[in-house]
Amino acid sequence: MDYTTFDKAAYAAFKANDRAGPVHMFNLIKLRDMALYEDGRQATGAQAYAAYARESAETFAKLGGKIIWRGQMEQMLIGPQERWDMCFIAAYPSVEAFASMHKYPAYRAAVAHRQAAVADSRLIRMAPLELGGNFGE
């Protein structure tokens, strides 16, 4: 099963867990070779995702979002042998900041590019912790 958009129950639970403080969203993105636009326009998945990034950037920044980590996948050592084209963590100042993106018309328009571009994805909500120590602390 491929995951490209929110499950309504999971999104409702995300919003209900409105704890204070920042939220980090770990993104794993698998792009389509060719984007699937409803209007039939032609672009690669990478081109469509780049359009999503460009067109959503102002809303993302306005809400206090920033990319705090990016990496290029090299190898899956443990786990299903899946390939992810994009791996990054986006930080938001609050649950509300993330949840309110869809209220902006420019962001809603940009989402069409994401939907056309993405073949599969994972979006994992995380609470930031202090750095340091070892793995089990």
Molecular structure report:
The chain has 137 residues and is α+β, with helices and mostly antiparallel strands. Helices cover 33% and strands 23% of the residues. It is built from four helices and four strands. Helix 2 packs antiparallel against helix 4 (105-117). The radius of gyration is 16 Å and the shape is globular.
For the structure shown, list the relevant keywords:
single chain; 137 residues; alpha+beta; 4-stranded antiparallel sheet; 4 helices
Outline the fold blueprint:
Layout: H1 8-16, E1 23-31, H2 45-62, E2 66-71, E3 86-92, H3 95-99, H4 105-117, E4 118-126
Antiparallel strand pairs: 1-3, 1-4, 2-3
Helix pairs in contact: 2-4
Major sheet details: 4 strands, antiparallel
Q: Provide the succession of SSEs.
A: HEHEEHHE
Tell me the radius of gyration.
16 Å
Q: Approximately how much helix is present in the residues?
A: 25-40%
Mean pLDDT, all residues: 95
Brief overview, please?
This protein has 137 residues and is an alpha+beta fold. It has helices at 8-16, 45-62, 95-99, 105-117; strands at residues 23-31, 66-71, 86-92, 118-126.
